[in-house]
Amino acid sequence: MRYLPLTDTDRADMLERVGASSIDDLFVDVPAVAQLDGPIRDLPMHASEMAVERHMKGLANKNVAAGDAPFFLGAGAYRHHIPASVDTVIQRGEFLTAYTPYQPEIAQGTLQMLFEFQTQVARLYGCAVANASLYDGSTACWEAVAMAGRVTKRKRAVLSGALHPHYAQVVKTMAQFTGDTIADAQPAIQTEPDLDGLVSRIDEDTACVVVQYPDILGRISDLSKVADAAHAKGALLVAVNTEPVALGAIKSPGELGADIVVGEGQAIGVGLQFGGPYLGLFAVRDPKHVRQMPGRLCGETTDAEGRRGFVLTLSTREQHIRREKATSNICTNSGLCALAFSVHMTLLGEKGLRELAAENHRLACLAADRLEKVPGVKLLNNAFFNEFTLMLDGKPARDIVRDLADRGVLGGVSLGRLYPGVDALEHALLVTVTELTTEEDIETLATELEGVLA
Amino acid sequence: MRYLPLTDTDRADMLERVGASSIDDLFVDVPAVAQLDGPIRDLPMHASEMAVERHMKGLANKNVAAGDAPFFLGAGAYRHHIPASVDTVIQRGEFLTAYTPYQPEIAQGTLQMLFEFQTQVARLYGCAVANASLYDGSTACWEAVAMAGRVTKRKRAVLSGALHPHYAQVVKTMAQFTGDTIADAQPAIQTEPDLDGLVSRIDEDTACVVVQYPDILGRISDLSKVADAAHAKGALLVAVNTEPVALGAIKSPGELGADIVVGEGQAIGVGLQFGGPYLGLFAVRDPKHVRQMPGRLCGETTDAEGRRGFVLTLSTREQHIRREKATSNICTNSGLCALAFSVHMTLLGEKGLRELAAENHRLACLAADRLEKVPGVKLLNNAFFNEFTLMLDGKPARDIVRDLADRGVLGGVSLGRLYPGVDALEHALLVTVTELTTEEDIETLATELEGVLA
Amino acid sequence: MNAPNKSGWKPQMETSEDGIHTGPATTTGNHALMLEEPLLFEIGHAEVTGVDLPDIDESAPTRLAGLERSEPVGLVGLTEPETVRHYTRLSRQNYGIDLGFFPLGSCTMKHNPRLNEKMARLPGFADIHPLAPQQTVQGALKVIDELANWLKTLTGMPGVAMSPKAGAHGELCGILAIRAAHTARGDAREVVLVPESAHGTNPATAAFAGYEVEDIPATPEGRVDVEALKARLGPDVAAVMITNPNTCGLFEKDFRTIADAVHEAGGYVYCDGANFNAIVGRVRPGDLGVDAMHINLHKTFSTPHGGGGPGSGPVVFSEALMPFAPLPFVRKGEGGNFELVEEESREATRGQTFGRMTAFHGQMGMFTRALTYMLSHGADGLKQVAEDAVLNANYILRSLEDILHAPFADSGPCMHEALFGDKDFGGGLSTLDLAKGLIDEGYHPMTVYFPLVVHGAMLVEPTETESKASIDQFITAFRSVTERALAGDQSLKQAPYYAPRRRLDETAAARKPKLAWSEPEK
Amino acid sequence: MNAPNKSGWKPQMETSEDGIHTGPATTTGNHALMLEEPLLFEIGHAEVTGVDLPDIDESAPTRLAGLERSEPVGLVGLTEPETVRHYTRLSRQNYGIDLGFFPLGSCTMKHNPRLNEKMARLPGFADIHPLAPQQTVQGALKVIDELANWLKTLTGMPGVAMSPKAGAHGELCGILAIRAAHTARGDAREVVLVPESAHGTNPATAAFAGYEVEDIPATPEGRVDVEALKARLGPDVAAVMITNPNTCGLFEKDFRTIADAVHEAGGYVYCDGANFNAIVGRVRPGDLGVDAMHINLHKTFSTPHGGGGPGSGPVVFSEALMPFAPLPFVRKGEGGNFELVEEESREATRGQTFGRMTAFHGQMGMFTRALTYMLSHGADGLKQVAEDAVLNANYILRSLEDILHAPFADSGPCMHEALFGDKDFGGGLSTLDLAKGLIDEGYHPMTVYFPLVVHGAMLVEPTETESKASIDQFITAFRSVTERALAGDQSLKQAPYYAPRRRLDETAAARKPKLAWSEPEK
Ligand SMILES: Cc1ncc(COP(=O)(O)O)c(C=O)c1O
Ligand SMILES: Cc1ncc(COP(=O)(O)O)c(C=O)c1O
């Protein structure tokens, strides 16, 4: 078998050294009830690379790749062009097949990369310190709520109604067990987010307010209002961002007063991948909060010869040292996705990110203008970055998405799918446009949408 | 521009250091007649990675990839399964972006690989020494004829009629200029190659006889007969192999007495690539001929600390030292293809190569039996490895190939295309079968062939 | 990239105190192929980019609610040539499985097959959106379903949750299901029992889920003390978390007995499956009474560790816990189509799900790799995997026990890991010194100081993808470094000598944390 | 792979005479990330394979004419894990552009864009057969046609032959066309004039094509001596082969005059286009009277060198030579379809073709890369390429001429290469010693001892893909090594100190050539 180097001769020699007469002798401690008489049944036997490749390609061909159809999906997962050199770098065996850098002398590659990544994320978010990544935006969101609880010693979190419903679900799921109370709400279907309503829910027991920026309907609101209100009540503002490219065009959450900024980094370097692996970003504006942060941190130091080097640091926060007192149970994080993000961000740089953001916004404005003209379509947003909400007449949006797909167009995300049971959103379609969207794609969507709505 | 690191500030600073007022000052030596006033017209300006990718994918989609249709082409270029790890290795920047190993202390990776490659090729061919590669099988074939001339001091080469016509063309093209005489012939359309006819053409002025093994019609003949005849006349036997996988099943040319063995290595590790880059293999049975070999040779030596190391050696044969007296003008060869070949051959090993050959032959026999049953089809070969010649009734083979393609089947190579004007071959179709061919593919070809012939 | 050396390396230094940099010092700080690399922010520029995009039209109207960015982000860019070189040079300062033997205990650093990487990159898998209309992603849903089926069959468990993102996330999934099950029957319990030898994520997870954590005593032979455990069981104990094979490298013989006792007492059995590689294809945890167990696809099923992740930690469940599994999950719908069950169709489900753990459906990119790996090995190959992994570990244990303290060498054969301690080291040398000595020999050290139950623990996990030649050379090197440690060879205190960096000052790093680059004050 | 160290490294050695291996010797011969690697044949086995195939059915009938192999081939195999590790470890003993500055003169070691690699691997390009029915490869034929058009437009030449496989093969193509043209008009000529500064392939090619080679004298300023050349022209001279920009790094000012004189005398002008990178997009050789010129796609157009190849050497032709271009070639047929003109349709062609140079249509894999590169840069970008390449070279020339002998520094600006000599080196030190000193500094040395016209020549070609920071650091390092060379620092004689190997004994290698591995006698 192509992945197993031991030959039968090797096995015999080794058993002899071990003093066992057969391999079964090494499994004597397994109780009889659990001893099997041979390979597990109902599973295929080993297969050649050729055969496996045929099988997997067969499955892949059953999917419609985003590149093969006009594509307008977003809602927390964004499709951007990833330069070819990103994949070259992450396929380097020294990065791909390394473990968490526990032996820093032979892990400086990963460590320096993480230090650079942390700096990029902190700057993007307008924060002082970012960690070395978490699983994804939604778990980062919960970690932020939990951290706010540790910092404020309070157990109540207020969620904006326009926080990604999956993120809200994750927070609420965890809270069931930790005993935190989560005050969430339905999103107000209006051109501007209902910040006053949100602020009014903050009280003296509130550990944090969680606001998405831009929000799930694509709207952009001035976080500083919420920050002031929260701070006035001794609560922290947790800002959530699912589209990092947006921050090339709009002010950073940190700049607007967010205390903890978390988000999904997938849009840069990682790709769609049907939802995972993604990249949880986590940063704090005030360095004094560092010791309450979850996850790994890479720090600068020097070696025995005085040369600069990097190590994982402040691990007394972590499970492998602190065990049940750790700030989080996370161990394996999203290292390689962080590398992909960092490489792509390095290629973009300040100039590229700003231009990429501008191009996304330009095309999104173009699309909004065009789609608004389709009979039966209303544009909800005044403001948006690269995605916006359309209110559709007639059929529920989920059916329209399905019909568009039948016509070969991946037309958007039905908000009804994300907010089951919220009638007001049954007819809302979230449409996303990136630099990969062509004007031709926009025209196609407009035409097919018209056809479907007719 | 994404590949150009100099900024305008850099350029200004550098011009100053250089003492030039503008970049034009550096091109003063270009005569006025050749000075252009700006970017060359009639060519597009620079484009983003996204845009270029769209354009190239558009072109790629205009081709039918071999993987997307039942595929039966060979005739000097063979499609085999290449393990995924081969590409991983050849994409390592240290291999991909290195130059010819002129500085051995920092090129041991390439050099040791070449030493291993030379050993693999020599053993596959049953020879003492192989070189570090030439361009492809056809240029290797000419180099062999030229070398035979140097060794024997004679200027006449006898070509078997069943030598790949493109190879024969290359030899004849070169001979026009070197003044060698080439005695070639038409292939005898019969189940067995006409060895007696070949032998009868050898005379006292003959430097070498060139025989393909297996030959262009897929036939296999016992080279030892030709070897003896050639040696009796003081001529060398040059054996040409275009399908290295075959040598996992049949005796090596060296074993049968060939003096120089050359061939195409593309079938192992390199892939089809529409004909290039390919891999010219060149080996000699008798070490005494080494100093007459063309191309680079890697040899073993030791370093100043007594450690084993490798260097390019015997370069006094080569153009960069010997200039007009060199054994060949070749400089850049097929280094990375040699690496791909060596990695794939390492994965196969003795066991894998033998099994791969057996599987190819098994399926080819299956296909021959099935296709023979198609009305209007006669199998020419008694013996073959993984390709054989079918004689077809009715339309010329080239039309049948075209009609099959219209039915979505890449059915084989029309020998009429390779031997224009040789009427006897107008109706001959060369069909190739490899481990990638499924029994379903064979059935499809049989059915469609029946349809086309009807 | 090679801007003037900023790393603090001192060119003037002719000889470092230990003499290894004798030979002329270099002005660049480079040593031939061992190359120094400045930080991105020291070589990049705000106006440089490696991505060609249209220039910004400042006059174009925007709809950004007046929140247009006014300050620079503070990023720098590199062109593609500089980028590729920066990361290539960094990568060369890393050790990975592709370079050599990486016996990091508990981490299963096996070879990562390249076919996995190729399959995961097929556009049909890599370029599909998690919220795409389900009729356009049937192949992806089938991948999840096929993988789920493999996992259930290999473990002999009826259910599986695919969304957990890594082992620790899987632990959380299992513990939450247990908690939900108790809550569902109105049986509030506060305690989870965890052995001291457990991985840190176990107690951390239990605490994260709101439980108190109590220790399970161990026997001198390195296994759970069944009697003591039984004695502790009671109405307050929600679950036990036991790693099997355990972190001492031993199989928990009495697991079944323990499981029965726990069930008896109304609790559930969580099994940490990180060590599944020792038994995959040979032993089904379902036959041992497990209620929930996570599987690290990035260990047993060969998906790459990537310098810290991503991983994937699906959790298999017993009948008792299945109803509480998280959303979303894939199910075969009518007409053989696959459906994704989400909140939207929650009512359509058994409805007892404890909720959602992550935004989407889990680590699809790891699923395609793991499924590719499983299909390659098949049931017979996976059994061989376990057998070779265990054989390699026992071979190492028996080849070193004569000179290295092996606390549980008499507790029977080890599973896929060999555990040693630092007893008898001379001259104040420690496990750390030995580990650093192995670095110079060209190895990544084993896991050190874990599990906590053994002094100066060294946990060696060879995995099945090492050749005998590789292991034999490792044993030779390990013996020679061990001899130096026993002899108290002080040169070990300075090791490593040949790595890109000598020992790094971790105390300084933690005392005054520098966690992001900042412009040096001029 | 790490089987017991077979490389001859001596573990017992505590300190090598130069002291650089002080610090404990290792049993493996490894030094942390600098890993020794045995030969494939020392670690592989005949019964091991990394490819799963059906076992051979010995009983199956064969149709092999009784020539079934009876002897083993003598190959060994490795599993995939061992294979990936073997080659990864080997690769780490190599220097490449991705690692650092690689100023190898005349080789144009520019960055190899990764988009090129990605595009070349699209199945529509990588997985098509050279003899596939033409209606199934229209996209491939269009790639050849588009690339041909770029080359003709960039050079201002009417025709191009795409099939030559590398530069030298392209030279051959050009020279054969010239010979065919003369023959066609019954004008037999025997001599080709080539300057001494020319690359070895020039004279070798002329000889290979059956010509006598004669030297063209040069002026002290490093250019062709026009008067001397004119004096030599006559009815026996078939062609001149001139490299422009030439290998001394200078533009041949009088190229046009030379060309006119040669044409006057009935000869043809072959231009070696290896240095096209200096003028691409800025100067069209067609405007200088060139009849034939090869273009190394693996230099100017960024296809990777791959440790020695493959390359690609299309040849552009003047009207006079076009009819003699080789087969096959691509032509736009009726209905806008592309046709491949081969022997089959030879009669359909102008029919004067000198024949075929290679089995198929040339280096398609390089065509897709080069076209991707050209489209990325565009006409404006390529002009910038030439300008930056020339600027970088002049910057280096002017930054070093004060301490290093620069023979042609006063002949005007250099083009894309800066040429130096070893005049004034002390203590018997040579260009070679300086080159080896640069290796320790982390650089690949420049081209040395070429061109032959300068003593101890050092030809430095930075290319346009180096940043200023990179070049500045190189200059600093180069100056410091030069100062050591001028001062006669004997430690340079031992360099390199830090590479995987110290200096290798090339004389021994050639005296008793060992060109293949053989089983050691027991
Ligand atoms: C025994 C054990 N349990 C749990 C874990 C946690 O798994 P992960 O790192 O995937 O979260 C690990 C991984 O290090 C482990 O070794
Ligand atoms: C000036 C010059 N001419 C010709 C050649 C030969 O080109 P190739 O190596 O592609 O055959 C080279 C390449 O080294 C060269 O530098």
Keywords for this entry:
heterotetramer; A: 454 residues; alpha/beta; 7-stranded mixed β-sheet; 4-stranded antiparallel β-sheet; 37% helix; 13% strand; C: 522 residues; globular; disordered N terminus; binds pyridoxal-5'-phosphate
Can you describe this structure?
- The complex is a heterotetramer, with two copies of chain A (454 residues) and two copies of chain C (522 residues).
- Chain A is of the alpha/beta class and 454 residues long.
- In chain A, 37% of the residues lie in helices and 13% in strands.
- Chain A has 14 helices and 13 strands.
- Chain A has helices at residues 8-18, 49-60, 84-90, 93-96, 108-125, 137-152, 165-178, 195-200, 223-232, 319-322, 335-372, 397-406, 415-418, 439-453, and strands at residues 129-130, 156-159, 181-183, 206-212, 236-241, 260-264, 280-284, 297-302, 308-313, 377-379, 387-392, 413-414, 428-432.
- In chain A, the strands form three sheets. In chain A, strands 1-7-6-5-4-2-3 form a seven-stranded mixed beta sheet.
- In chain A, a hairpin with a 7-residue loop joins strand 10 (377-379) and strand 11.
- The longest helix of chain A is centred in the C-terminal third of the chain and has 38 residues, at 335-372.
- Chain A is globular.
- By secondary structure, chain C is an alpha/beta fold.
- Chain C is built from 13 helices and twelve strands.
- Chain C has helices at 40-43, 80-91, 114-120, 123-126, 138-155, 167-184, 201-208, 226-232, 255-264, 364-400, 431-440, 468-486, 506-511, and strands at 159-161, 191-195, 212-216, 237-243, 268-272, 292-294, 315-317, 329-332, 338-341, 418-420, 447-448, 458-460.
- In chain C, the strands form three sheets. A seven-stranded mixed beta sheet of chain C has the order 1-7-6-5-4-2-3, sandwiched between helices.
- The longest helix of chain C has 37 residues, at 364-400.
- Chain C is globular and about 70 Å long.
- The two termini of chain C are 24 Å apart.
- Chains in contact: A-B, A-C, A-D, B-C, B-D, C-D.
- Chain B binds chain C through residues 1-5, 7, 46-49, 83-85, 87-88, 93, 105-106, and chain C through 32-33, 45, 47-53, 78-82, 84, 88, 113-115, 117-118.
- The site of one pyridoxal-5'-phosphate has 14 residues of chain C, from helix 6.
